[in-house]
Amino acid sequence: PVYSLGGFTELDPALQRLFEAFLDDMQNRGIQVTALLVPYHPIVYSELTSSDKYKMVAEVERYVKETSNKYGVSLAGSYDPRAIGCEPEDFYDGMHPKATCLSKSEFKTW
What is the pTM of this model? Predict the structure, then answer.
């Protein structure tokens, strides 16, 4: 199983409310928030998107994108390494991108 994703079958409504309350609070305080989706290694991402067992990864990305848009929050990155131009050599392992990956595309605003 992919690290920490075994048994992840649905978004937790309580955690969604907590996340949205956090974003609302930050907005009310005038604090600018950027949501960050850190990419997976291309081989891992391919497994995640081709397996029913890990379909929640795409669901989480969709939720974060929609919620960021709803709250006017900036969004950087993607779980999909191709979406930001990261190649296999841009990773230490299946889950940890190198600076070469993080310096690409939308990550340049860090």
Answer: 0.84
